[in-house]
Design goal:
With 153 residues, this protein is of the alpha+beta class. It contains two helices and eleven strands.
């Protein structure tokens, strides 16, 4: 097994080619933050990262935090019941703060359905368990407290 994934950064490309997706991301984040985190001004957050990520052949992603971001969003492009086996998303099951000892964290596994997504505090330690077979594909978006990052292609 190898830690890692195949990742393609798409930040500026997505914003330039598909601005409706950027607005969709902001609406989803606004719904989540307003109802769960009591933060109502998500439109002041910029998009730091948009990535297409695929995992296959024993790949996994070690637990980590997206430390420069405020919220991370994952949109599932694969079906766990037919496209891959293994590859559960795991996330810290406790309040998340900067400087938490990840080794002492308790994790829960989440299987995100095809077409579904999750939004979480970027300071929550998270990762992906090993893929046993097939290919797991997601789009990850990270929001931060600065303007959108626009990469020139």
């Amino acid at each position: 097994m190898t830690s890692g994934n195949n990742c393609s950064s798409m930040g500026g490309f997505v914003a330039g080619v598909h601005p409706e997706f950027v607005q969709y991301v902001r609406r989803v984040a606004a719904m989540y933050t307003a109802t769960l985190l009591n933060v109502t001004d998500v439109y002041q957050l910029g998009i730091r990262v948009v990535e297409f990520i695929s995992y296959e052949g024993g790949n996994y992603l070690s637990t980590h935090k997206d430390s420069d971001s405020v919220y991370t969003m994952l949109f599932m492009l694969s079906d766990a019941s037919s496209d891959y086996a293994g590859g559960e998303f795991m996330i810290q099951n406790q309040p998340c703060y900067w400087g938490d000892d990840q080794s002492q964290s308790h994790y829960i596994n989440i299987t995100v359905p095809l077409g579904g997504g999750i939004v979480f505090n970027s300071l929550c330690s998270h990762g992906v368990r090993a893929i046993h077979s097939g290919r797991r594909k997601v789009v990850a978006v990270e929001l931060w407290r600065y303007p959108d990052v626009m990469t020139n292609f």
